[in-house]
Amino acid sequence: MERTLSIIKPDGVKRGLIGEVVRMLEQNNLEIVAMKMLHMTKQQAEGFYAVHRERPFFQSLTDFMSSGPAIVMVLQGENVIARYRELMGATNYKEAAEGTIRKAFATDIEQNVVHGSDAPETAAFEISYFFSQLEIL
Ligand code: GDP
After folding, report:
1. What's the whole-model pTM score?
2. H or E segment to which residue 4 belongs
3. C-alpha 76 to ligand 1 mean position (Å)
């Protein structure tokens, strides 16, 4: 059993895509074991994306991630990190495969609707960034 952190980013919430994204998770048997809405401060977004601190888009990314409410979820299942990343599609929506969330909905390399952890270590950090053990089924 593996867990991963999923975020419906502020563009997805603003554009009314919460239901569409959750429907795709459910249809692909990605089990949601925790979920809440929050509006990150700039400082919280910087902490979440600390690994990207040196990237040229760090300021813009953390401005975007703190620009409005987001949905954070924990998904659980066998091989869920890779399965969810496959469903998200490539970071750049122009390269995302048919049937992926980003292919269906993303409009921009930065405003790409969803986030997903990329490895077990990052998943553990990211889940604990937003959830206590008591909030996860
Ligand atoms: P992910 O794992 O597919 O989300 O991609 P990364 O970990 O490489 O990047 C994290 C997030 O930074 C992405 O989801 C985008 O929102 C943003 N991002 C990545 N590459 C770029 C870029 O070249 N330009 C800008 N503006 N944002 C980017």
Report:
1. 0.98
2. strand 2-8
3. 23
